[in-house]
Fold these 2 entries.
Entry 1:
Amino acid sequence: MEAGRLDQVVEKEIYVSVGPQHSGAGHFRMVLKLDGDIIVDVIPDPGFVHRSVEKIAENMLYVQIVPLVEKVTHVDASNLAMGYVRAVEELSGIQVPERAKYLRTIACELSRITSHLYFFGIFGIFLNHSTMFMWSFGDRDLFLDLTQLLTGTRIAHSYILAGGVRHDMPQDFPDKAMKVLDYFERKLEDYYKIFMLNPVMIERTRGVGVLSREDAIRLGATGPVLRASGVRYDTRKDDPYAAYDKIDFEIPVYKEGDSYARVMVRFREMQESVKIIRQALRDMPEGPVRPKRMVPRWPVKKGEHYARVEAARGELGYYIISDGKAKPYRLKMSSPSFRNLLILKHLLRGETLADMPAIYMSLDYWAPEADR
Amino acid sequence: MNPVKAFIDSVKSMIVGFKYLFTVPRMTLKFPEQKMVLPPGYRGQHYLEMDKCTGCSICAMSCPPRAITMVKRDPTPRNKRGLFPLINFNYCIYCGYCVLFCPFDALHELDIHDLAVYDRDKLIHPPEFLQKVKENPEILYEYSGMNVIRTPRWKEEYAEPVFTRRGVKHEPIRK
Amino acid sequence: MMDVAGLIIRIVKYLIYDLTHMGPVFKAVIFPGLAFVFILAIVLVWLERKMAAKVQMRIGPLYAGGPEGILQPIADFIKFAFKELIIPDQADKLLFIALPIVSLVVAMAPIAFMPYSRYMIISPNPYGLLFAMAFVTLFPLIILLTGWASNSKYAFIGGIRAAYQQIGYELPMWFSALGVALASRSFDFVKIVESQQPLWFALTQPLGALAFFIAMVAEMGRIPFDIPEAEQEIAAGWFVEYTGIMFGIYMVSAMLMKLYVLSLLFTVMYLGGWLPGWGLPEAWTFVKAFIVMFLIMFFRAVFPRTRIKTFVNMAWDKLLPLSIINLLIVFALTFTGFYGGVQP
């Protein structure tokens, strides 16, 4: 019989390609080597959305790099910009007004919530829970509206610039933000009941893809993945920037290290972000938010500097080498998604094919961020 | 997992679902019929005040995707060299740097964002055109040939704003 | 020539008589049969989407025509009909083309034995339950064959998963059905319904009903048990290679007909069919079956997908003991004359 050749079936191990046009992967491909239903090996194949950000940045003014790095993770734009601007500011000693710091904190936390909601939507649909997908994306829209009110656009804000922020918040922003936050806190309870408490979801994620504390540290996990493995490490606390040192918030840490813990860490982080935005709006001092005249040429001093921030996916680092000219000599991005890619290989081995979406997505892998 | 607890939790999840089946806040925006009310400061289509422009080219210099080209036009007393920005909206990322860094406030942003065209060349907007957009945004659609589509098939209306007096649009109305 | 004309006239006369007096042709073509089922299918697809949309705070189908976009399923089907048919080079061509049609036949066959009331039944049969269950059992085989004929890894994994799943739910399903047959002392649907006279079997055999219900949802391949077509793991599983109208037929047979047939089966077996029987008995059956269908469609909005491993474990650890215990209880109760009327 020509069709359905037997030799394909007799093979003990088969290779199944997941991605980039598969519904179970983003702009990312991995080849799974399966023995029956067990994943024996994973061959990740990143690089489909490589945009050569680091090289392009060498030919751009410092200010032009802000939208460039934001595009890498457009769901998490403000955090990406924050890291870059922090590196530039600390390199050249640019002072930031106090009010601008609070506005930056708000922008970063809005960004984090939108990014986590995006995660919840995708994670929900990866487990075939379409309600979670729709709810998350619908509620994400509220935060995009808030961001639009604050920064002037929904994604790719370019709001955080060296020396402050682009402009002050509108008069009605605190009022509207409170409305959204009140609604969102109530809605999170429904999220919890329909998704986190759902026995089918718990059955699929608890005890799946367990990353021990030692492995997490050894393999260089960051962000929620690291915190779900019981390591209390968050750049916002350990190396504070913006106004995080003046704000009281907690870092959710879970010990289990499985997919469920990673989801719960993000869930609790959203609750913390709501608290942070509330506090920032309450404590915000009056004053200027930027130098009077914004100029396209930033006064960057000669030297090298590394700065890091806590993006939604983990610790994000920028290393800048400046030779004192208008454009950087070298810009290196150390993105959290790429660091979590190694863990994917470690986690998937020995699990079944059905666990692949729950593990892969719980890392919140963002392909353009890893490829850069 | 304890099957009794699992059963109770499934019922809990289903009750939440049932709750949403009957209290129905809809978050969908029926786009061509309803339009979102955009806040002031929204970064959309640009317009240019040619009498304010001095041709200093800071907008072209600061444009990250290099969408702005300075083109020669008749010199004005303010603009001796006669250089004015031409914006190629194929490239524009709406970062708003040209507006932010313009020392003479010649460039501004409008809340127009639906810039679909049939022909890519129609997205290259010369300075005279950029000047006219402010008074009459309809010329955008005439120029791009999209006014055919914009003939009102549906009655256009502005959507109920997301932030209402009672909270946000997504919330069910409490009795 | 006269004979032919006379024959045609006689046939037409018979048809008119048949259709006006609810004869077999009327039953097969109109009411419990084809026309009714296809109209119901359209309403079901629309209802499922609308209901999911409500829970998810969306609007759902709206623009396709009719009130609230009720013609959307027809629009979808027209779209499927006009799409290009692609038959993979490596596929087993004959099987690949034949299987969707076979699947539709197999999925719809049990409708012939399902009673809507004492008389509203296409093919009255003393072994109706056995026939219906036999056809229901046949479907996973088609899934397995489809996976084989497509000659694609994803489809093949999907087919194997369907086979595994069947290993899990088949026994509980049959044991539960056996409880019903034992309690009513018959495989005849009419007798099964009649013997639920004071109390439904769902009340007298709750364990069996629960086991049958879960097994039934798994058999339908609906969320949370849509394991063979797991889109996020194996693309679309067993029908990944199908396009156009063949895909449309699979959607109708696998998604809708099985939903309808099994919900009706559950209604007849456990929810007392047309009982209490006054008024329009067909309406009772329909309303009960509709509520069951609605409940199962509602699962889509609140549950994610389970894993094959857990499902098979659950089926053997929980469902099978449940159904066997149920069978033993029924067995004991029959001697006490609890299931009235019929004595052992």
Entry 2:
Amino acid sequence: MTGAPDEELIRLARRGDEQAFASLVERYYRAAYASAYAVLGNAGDAEEIAQETFVQVYEKLDRLRDPGALPGWIWRIARDTALKHIRKHKRIRPVGDAPDLNLDEQRPHEPLVAAEEKEQLIAALGELPDEMREAVLMRYWEELEYEEMAERTGVSAAALYQRVCRGLKRLRETIERKDALA
Amino acid sequence: MNDDTQTEGYDHTPEGRELVALLQKYAPPAVDSRKGAQAVMARLGGVRPRGRLRLLIHLAPVAAAAALVAVALLIFTPPPEQPGTPAPVAKQDDAPAPTHTDIRRERGYPEIVATVRGSSGDGLLIDAGAKDGLRVGDELSAAGGVKARVTAVGIFEARISADVPLSRGAEVRARAATEAQQRAAGFADFGGDPGAFLEFGALVSAMPLADARMLGISDGAALRVDETLPALLRDPQSAPAPTLAAQLDLRAGDVIIEVNGSHVRTLNDFGQALGWSHDPRLLSVRILRNGKQLDLRL
């Protein structure tokens, strides 16, 4: 069932087919996780939000009129859920992801620098328009080819390439602007 | 010339490549979509019927109960109200929607705040679990002096038993008093505990250099097991399942040397060696326990 098109899986899931919905979750889990991670910068929370996202997707599946819009819909739900999570947990917003920082290697200054750099990147990603951020992260975090991205989004590969380039340029400008203000 | 043509090829410029490298450097850690899907399905409790069908299913027992009560009222005189301690059952009322676990610092003291999400087996499910430092036997409190105790833990969720019924949406709290709770609270601001390999069932940490060298580990880098979790709640309605760490008989105090033949020096090494896609039946861990080298296998 894992190779079935989204439309078929959605139809079956709406009829209560557990395997069909699990296949959809498996197909887009990494997308939801990446979308949440781009907001939270924290793997554990992003995974929790990814799971919460699919609970919401299941609850609202009947409202999805265009099956082709499913990937973008999942991205937005994951992002909105992550933003709500931040609003609720303002006081504990993480700034770094410890497993990436080699805290165990006894180089006390490096984790702080890395955490700042990462926080800056996550903040800049947060300022990108949704469609640019989605394209950039599909390309570099999900490591999808442009053809795969086109298949998923229904947007041409050429247009997605433009979005990625514009997104990268916008990211650079945002990071430089923040550096100048710092 | 529009903006699109001006930016075309930006990914191949030195600035663009630098940004791509930065994005790749901070890409999220690998995640197992299959396990994620299993966790989602467990949270859904299997695929639940939606819409009108679900409403009918929810209403059916209510209607049946109402009918029974009506019949009982016709037959018996209602007995006087007796104080009692009925089993905790989550009520589907107008309580707030499920929320996320919180580790708060009120007056500088960490506190785990969780929400009741529904019923789970013979208890209640709350949205805090092993990642928040909850362990079986931990005590929690709710409004009105209600006491509860953790009877099973999952990574993100736990099953509790309360001394009086608690509604869905009710808050339960634990003052981060245990070692595990304090450890989780201590890492909450830093993106979570880097040594908590909860899926595997163990919490580990880098050994102090001198301790490792005393054990004869020449480069002084090794990991020590701080705690193992015997079992985790994988499905809210089922019994907890033994963790891989417990099945291997890994114990607190063990020093990890190798996983699947790969030398393990750091937490990152350990995570990578465990991998996400390994076949657990082939997992082997070489450890030092009380100065003796042991190979643990399933």
